[in-house]
Structures are given as structure tokens and as C-alpha cells.
């Protein structure tokens, strides 16, 4: 995984850097890789005017192996991983993501993200991504009585964690709770400090049929209507619930067996709602987990120890693989100051759009 920041390197530099680290970690060279599953949003959204990225990757890696590009907006990393796990007849598959994204003007970045929403009723009505999530959160607050203070605690936790993660944008830059509570409003009631941070970066994962120290024991993927307000239950994400169910069944475990999780906190509200969708809390009781401190780094179920999308940063497609990067290093016990106590089974949760495509993966130390 590269450092997540506003670096103005090219997307292929991020791809190269992340894959070299992954190859070293696996004691492999590019010649050992049989196929690559690549993901990015910027080709689909039109950035850089460079759509045939798989062929450019062939140049960079000096290889002629199959390279597939899969896009599923913010959920691209997880969907690429899910795809690689399903590929038969390949020994070593590299899953790769790279985004040069956040060095464009805010209006451009916001418009790229908006292109993931439904065109007629959402895009043309100006339903920017923070607005869509703010409306979901307004309904959740009304239904279940959670508060904005609960969300501030989530942002605070994730910023505290990122301050200990050298690859996070907010490394060594902790943010005080008052600054979070007083940050400017972006879309009522969500504030700047409730939003994920758009950054550039890349991440890579190698899936091997050879025995490794970490195994993917559960893999679930589900999709849902693109139009958020056309869903039966607007306050929760059915695709998360379905992907999680598949992953838990696949792994033969229950939510209470998970030691730590990286959750898709595109907004602090999405993190809270996901505690419930993933089975860590009962419906409407997600706020209890943050109020009790259970999900802090030293709690019984640490969540987003990497700093999450909020404070590590969110380079769209690279996020799902960066989550795997964190869990693998936590399971191995080599996360220094931010290492969690119990680290045998970890979960990653990656969402595309406002819940339209979701993957859940469960990783176990062997
Ligand atoms: N949290 C904390 N700080 C943030 C931030 C965030 N979410 N977003 C921007 N900043 C900081 C920047 O680092 C910068 O700080 P600096 O002046 O110290 O360098 C400052 O705020 C201004 O940055 P800028 O990029 O101009 O902010 P912006 O107003 O364009 O963007 C948002 C703010 C909230 C609109 C943007 O972060 C956003 O859209 N986030 C959500 C992204 C999203 O929806 N992703 C898809 C989710 S699946």
C-alpha cells in the first residue's frame, strides 16, 4: 500500500509502488503472477483520458499475462478481490488498485463521485454524495434516537487511530473532539469531519493457491437498487447484510467471533449503520458500541484501527485493498503502536456507492 495523500504522482506510479511491496512481502517476482485484476474509478469517470489501463500495466510490468479491469466505484477493491478469489486455474493472482483522483479541483472530484448515483432522480436533482448520506442519517436519527455526538466520537476514534498509522494522511496529526464538533457543515447534519477524505494512492494484494500465513475464509458480495430511496429500508444497507451473511456462512463463524474489522466509513454515519448491518449490534443500537468504547483500539472489537476512510484517506477503488492490508498486518501482529490485543480473525467491509454494491471478506491467521 502506498502512503495515502495528495501526492501528484501518476496513477501507474501508485500501482507500481504497491505491487512491488506486495511482491516483496510474498517473496515473489512479477514472473510468479499468472493474472492481475485491476480496479480504478478514474478510467470510468473519464479522468486522465486513459481508459486502456490494462495494456499500460502490461508495459509497466513487462508482462503479457491476462489483466482484467473491474470497476465498482468505492467498492472496486473488494469486488476485484472477490473476483480474484473466484478465478479458477490460476496459481497467483494480483489484485491491484491505483487512483490519481484528489489532485483535481473539488468540483471535479465531487462530480466524479456523483456519477456513481442514479442519473435521473439523484444526479439531476443535485443529490451529491454527502447529501444522500445526510438524508439517510436524518431518517436514522429520527427512527432510533442516535445523535451527532455519536458521530463525533466515531470521527475522533478514527483520527486517533490514523495518528499512529504511517500510511494514513492524518499520521501524527490527531484531531481534537471540539474541532470535529465545530467543523463546517457540508450537508446538514453532516459536517466536514463526518466525511471521508478524498486522497490519491494505491494498494495491492496477492492471492495464492499455495499455503500462506493468512487465509481468506469468507467472501460475500451483494448488490442492491441504485436508487437509495427506492429501497424497502432506507436506514440500512441490505447489500451489506447479505454480503455479511454469505461471508459468515462461508467462514462458519458468527459476528461475535470477529476480533477486529475495517468498516467502510465513507461517512461516520455509514460506519455506525454498518455496525448493525454486519451483526455487531442490534438494529438501532449501534451507538452503544461507540459510547461504551468497545470499538476503540483497546476495546473488545476494534474498528478502523487504520484510521478508516475518514482519517487514513479514501482513494476510491484502493480502499477495499487497503482494508485487507491493515487486517493482514494486524493478524501478523506487526502494527507497532496501533497493534490490537486479540488478532486471529479480521473482517473487511467495502461499499460501492450508497450501498449499491458491497463486499465482506473474513481473514484468518493460520
Ligand atoms: N476530513 C478532514 N479534513 C478534510 C476533509 C475531510 N473529509 N476533506 C478535506 N479536508 C481538509 C483538507 O485536507 C484541506 O486541509 P488543509 O487546508 O489543511 O490542506 C482542507 O480540508 C480543504 O480541502 P478541500 O479538498 O478543499 O476540501 P473540500 O471542501 O473540497 O472537500 C468534502 C470537503 C467534505 C466535500 C470532501 O472531503 C468530500 O466530498 N468527502 C467525501 C468524499 C466521498 O464522498 N467519497 C466517496 C465515499 S464512498
Provide a concise account of the structure shown.
With 366 residues, this protein is an alpha/beta fold. The chain is built from 14 helices and ten strands.
Please describe what this structure looks like:
There is one protein chain. With 366 residues, this protein is α/β, with parallel strands linked by helices. 38% of the residues lie in helices and 16% in strands. It has 14 helices and ten strands. A hairpin with a 2-residue loop joins strand 4 and strand 5. The mean pLDDT is 95. Bound molecules: coenzyme A (COA). Coenzyme A binds at residues 74, 106, 110, 113, 129-130, 186, 192-193, 195-198, 266, 314.
| Strand tally | 10
Shape by Cα distribution:
globular
Q: Report mean pLDDT, rounded to a whole number.
A: 95
Main sheet? Answer: 4 strands, mixed
Order of helices and strands: HEHHEHEHHHHHEEEEHEHHHHEE
The Rg value, from CA coordinates, equals 19 Å
Q: Quote the beta fraction.
A: 15-25%
- Fraction in helix: 25-40%
Identify the quaternary structure here.
single chain
Distance between the termini: 23 Å
Bound molecules: coenzyme A
